[in-house]
Specification:
This protein has six helices and no strands. It has 113 residues and is mostly helical. Helix 1 crosses helix 4 and helix 5 packs antiparallel against helix 6.
């Protein structure tokens, strides 16, 4: 997965668990697109520590909770459901077969949650 997308997802899921100061700095870097130098000068801290501490915290939350991993797995299965329905619309497959395929996918989604 693209590192920027990964960091954005981690922040979406776990950003509220950061301190207010960490959130402010991380948002300046990721959302406001400020350079590490600009943020470091503003906050009076080392540029090497700024985003790395926030990223480590977010990654640690993911290691413990796996919410992003589960979200991406469910998203992939929902995409498969869309593909099955698209095939059915185009080919008018046997409805029982479609129902069975959809039930299997929904069961795996429930297991992952």
């Amino acid at each position: 997965m693209d590192k920027i997308l990964e960091q954005a997802l981690l922040y979406d899921f776990y950003g509220e668990l950061l301190t207010a100061h960490q959130k402010e700095i991380y948002e300046q870097f990721v959302l406001d697109d400020l350079s590490l130098g600009e943020i470091a000068a503003d906050a009076g801290i080392s540029r090497h520590d700024i985003v790395k501490r926030c990223a480590r915290s977010l990654e640690e939350y993911e290691r413990k909770l796996h919410l992003v991993e589960k979200f991406l797995a469910v998203k992939e299965k929902v995409s498969c459901i869309d593909e099955i329905l698209q095939e059915w619309e185009e080919e008018k497959e046997n409805p029982e077969e479609i129902i069975e395929r959809l039930r299997k996918l929904s069961a795996t989604i429930i297991e992952e949650l």
